[in-house]
Design goal:
Layout lengths: L1 E3 L7 H17 L1 H11 L18 H19 L77 H8 L18 H6 L11 H9 L13 H19 L45 E3 L2
Parallel strand pairs: 1-2
Helix pairs in contact: 1-3, 3-7
């Protein structure tokens, strides 16, 4: 069993090894395959077909498996590497440690949001963006959206989601349902005065590539979702008598039949069920 650490506690050596493993995965072309998987299964509520990665109850288990696949690929390169997590409720400014030049690099420049610093900047020559991009091939960010400011989620906003004892709720439609931990943490169920909360708000705060289906083009995606995975863990501990919903396959009369997955239905592209991913015990642990 290995440990996922808070990124702010990483040593200089640990940062270098993580970055080196990510860059090697990019060099071989395997990294871009991960981006394509996310793009393939990024489907909103208003489209027909199965929703498995987003706007659906399987949001947490799908991303848990997705992170595990990515982490396994990194650990094949360097067995000492794991995916750290970014606690965006405390490391909540562009001056936070993860944006340092020796780790993920900083925000993009004003004119075109092109990232100019760090190992994933175009100037390094190691990070061409090729998936889901029609023009520029450079990584882009717009931390905090200075011209239309947005803040990262607060501890209170996060607790608002964790306090909900129900995992997810009918009608299993992220925009129609205002309840359920999954919907509140993913960020669609927000007060009327807000458009986004929690997970979604972080994607908007980072800006650039993080705002669309090819968000994993930005390596911060993995640190963000490592924290999301930890938050699912915290919710389970806070509500031990609650669990994944829906437990059984929806009936044909349900508008979401064939569009969302119940506890024991397999999730593409791996053919594993949410039930198989309710725990990470024995695989990895989180360091406080």
């Amino acid at each position: 069993m290995y440990t996922r650490q808070n990124q702010k506690n990483l040593t200089t050596s640990q940062k270098k090894r993580f970055v080196a493993a990510v860059l090697e995965l990019k060099r071989t072309g395997e990294y871009d395959e991960f981006v394509r998987v996310h793009q393939r299964w990024f489907r909103p509520d208003d489209e027909d077909g199965l929703r498995v990665g987003h706007m659906s109850p399987s949001f947490f288990p799908w991303h848990r498996r997705y992170l595990l696949e990515f982490e396994r690929a990194l650990r094949q390169i360097d067995p000492a590497v794991s995916v750290p997590y970014w606690d965006w409720t405390s490391e909540n400014t562009p001056a936070a440690s993860l944006w340092a030049e020796d780790f993920l690099g900083g925000s993009g420049r004003d004119s075109d949001h092109k990232v100019m610093t760090g190992p994933f900047a175009e100037g390094s020559g190691n990070w061409p963006v090729t998936v889901g991009v029609t023009e520029a091939r450079y990584l882009s960010r717009n931390l905090g959206r200075p011209h239309n400011p947005i803040s990262l989620p607060t501890r209170a906003e996060l607790q608002w989601a964790i306090n909900d004892p129900v995992y997810d709720a009918s009608p299993w439609d992220s925009r129609a349902s205002k309840g359920g931990f999954r919907n509140k943490l993913e960020g669609w169920a927000a007060p009327r005065s807000e458009r986004w909360r929690n997970h979604n708000k972080v994607h908007q705060w980072v800006g650039g590539h993080m705002t669309g289906g090819t968000a994993p083009n930005d390596p911060v995606f993995w640190l963000h979702h490592s924290f999301v995975d930890l938050l699912w863990d915290r919710w389970q501990q806070a509500h031990p008598d609650s669990g994944y919903l829906p437990r059984r396959r929806l009936g044909r009369a349900d508008l979401q039949y064939g569009r969302v997955l119940s506890l024991d239905e397999p999730m593409p592209p791996w053919d594993v069920t949410p039930a198989e991913l309710l725990s990470h015990e024995g695989v990895y642990r989180y360091e406080a």
